[in-house]
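FORM 7B: Structural annotation worksheet

SECTION A. Query
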Amino acid sequence: MTTARDIMHAGARCIGEDDSLYTAAQMMRDLKVGSLPICGRDDRLHGIITDRDIVLRCCAEGRNPAEMKAGELAQGKPYWVDAGSDVGKVLSMMEEHQIRRLPVIADHRLVGMISEADLARHLTDEQLAHFVESVYAMK
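SECTION B. Predicted structure
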């Protein structure tokens, strides 16, 4: 059985909820990623921030990324998957919620992230086609 741990990108790093979007953008650049999990003072997952979030919800609204905090973009309940979950659960969660990145948790701690690139490397062509159709379908 292929698990979330088998297909995830290990070593994901969090941005703190009190860190600025400027710091988040620098981390994304340095890590060569398009998103970061947002972790709270309680060391728990509070959400995910994307490069697109910074552009649309900060810069495009005339706000200063050096002053706006990552936690301001953490809205709603974050979706995540347990590291031992099978790839079917990963796919169904990402498809159901139409999300492109999924944090992987083990023992209440972030251990990795699953992105579309990770799926492309580990899924069959049929599984990948179904995922793309489900996530990108206009609803």
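SECTION C. Observations
The chain has a mean pLDDT of 91. The CA atoms of residues 7 and 77 lie 23 Å apart.

SECTION D. Sign-off
Analyst initials: ____
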